[in-house]
Amino acid sequence: MKGIAHYFWWTILITALIIELGMQTFWLNRFGYFVSPIVSIAAGLLIGVSALILADRDDGGKRVTDAQRINVPLWRYAVSGLVFLIAAIYCGTLLSNIMQEFPVNASASDIIPSLEMYVKRLLAGETVYKPLPFDGYEVDPTYYPLLWGPYIFSEVLQIDYRWTAYTVFLLAVFWYQYRLVRQDVSLVELIIKMLVPFVWIYLIAYNVPGTYGMAVELLPIGFYLFLGLSVFNKRPWIMALGILLCLLSRYAFTFWLPMYMLILWFERGFKTVFQTSLYVLLGVTLLYIIPFLSKDWTIITKGLEYYEKTAVGQWQTQPWQAPDSAPHHLANGLSMAMYFYSYEEYTVEDRLTYNRKIHMALCAAVALFILFGYFFFRKRGMDTQFYLLAALKIYLVIFYGFFYVPFSYLFQLPLFMSLPLLYRLRFRKKQLATS
């Protein structure tokens, strides 16, 4: 019966993975903008829940000692390295074609042009955080330093910014797969899991190429994957680095982070939390407060005001849409925002405000459930790192599922946060080894 339960939950997990991926690619908005987000959110939550159940039942989330790791033969490294290289080059070719199909153009999307302005201002010694001028409008700077800073590399070498995002993503995936190679899994399972992120990139590139043509979401995805590697590391500065990468880029994990610190306190004591927090504070001070915020303390408030203004704009029918159409980004079938927009008896501003309040309340509620769940799974002996990664997956699904400015490229982040869970669990019912 235990073996049957194992494969049952693996079937649930794989089915949910396919559905969540499909709702962003080949089934995008297939069921309309009211049903599609429910299906997508349900699939994402089911991934997190089924992963926790598998880990709880089959020791997939249990901590493993050094003595339980396998000795990896050289040929295993060679085969896995070749698989990674071929897949990375193939997806790189797809992205190269997309870059040619979608040249950087502010009239189509101001994301990459904005990044270019941040970087060029910094390199020229100009004030970075001042309005970004475009044809007919201005954008207030809202990006934190690690969302644009890595592209200094691209600007200096004069390469497309999208290559830098892909490189950061590859570095994170490479490190996960290096750990995967050292697990006691069959070669077939190893190769299947190694190909998963590249299959996802292929399907996104094939079905919604603009996601990679006009945005660079692979960079924060790479940062969040690095966060997964750093959770409960033995060294406080590595844990701090993982937090810092996300905090100064795509800081969607805001409600999850305090639970992480609190659980770290329970597990490792106040000293570790203090040291980790001190490193994070040092990083924020050196990368953001001293070079930028200290020169204009209104940057944060101006950014928040601009976000509110942007949100209101996205809750309007866009100029290029038919007059009676639903707002483009709200109707993409990925977010519950359309449910709030549909209350026509209220003003658009009131509907948006209500959506924002529900969004915050749900994120806070999930954070509390994460804390309660920790005590439950801790008693059952689950590895706290695995639990926190599954909790992060669940949290991000809710965060974006009810997000009130649901740009479609943002939803790749909760999708790809399934990878750390998938890599830790075994197809066969046997203790896995991690490093």
Reading the helices and strands in chain order gives: HHHHEEHHHHHHHHHHHHHHH
Mean pLDDT: 93
Strand order of the largest sheet: 1-2
What can be said about the biggest beta sheet?
2 strands, antiparallel
Number of domains: 1
Radius of gyration: 22 Å
Which percent range describes the beta-strand content? under 5%
Distance between the termini: 30 Å
Helix run count = 19
**Shape verdict:** globular
Strand tally is 2
Approximately how much helix is present in the residues? 55-70%
Structural class call reads mainly alpha
Which spans have pLDDT < 50 for at least 5 consecutive residues? 64-68, 431-435
Characterize the structure shown:
The protein is mostly helical and 435 residues long. It has one domain (2-316, 326-424). The chain has helices at 2-22, 32-58, 74-101, 111-123, 145-148, 152-157, 161-181, 187-207, 210-213, 218-230, 236-247, 256-268, 270-289, 299-314, 337-341, 348-379, 384-401, 412-416, 419-424, and strands at 132-134, 137-139. A two-stranded antiparallel ribbon has the order 1-2. Strand 1 and strand 2 form a beta hairpin. The chain starts with a helix and ends in an 11-residue tail after the last helix. Residues 64-68 and 431-435 have low confidence and may be disordered.
Q: How are the SSEs ordered, and which strands pair?
A:
Layout: H1 2-22, H2 32-58, H3 74-101, H4 111-123, E1 132-134, E2 137-139, H5 145-148, H6 152-157, H7 161-181, H8 187-207, H9 210-213, H10 218-230, H11 236-247, H12 256-268, H13 270-289, H14 299-314, H15 337-341, H16 348-379, H17 384-401, H18 412-416, H19 419-424
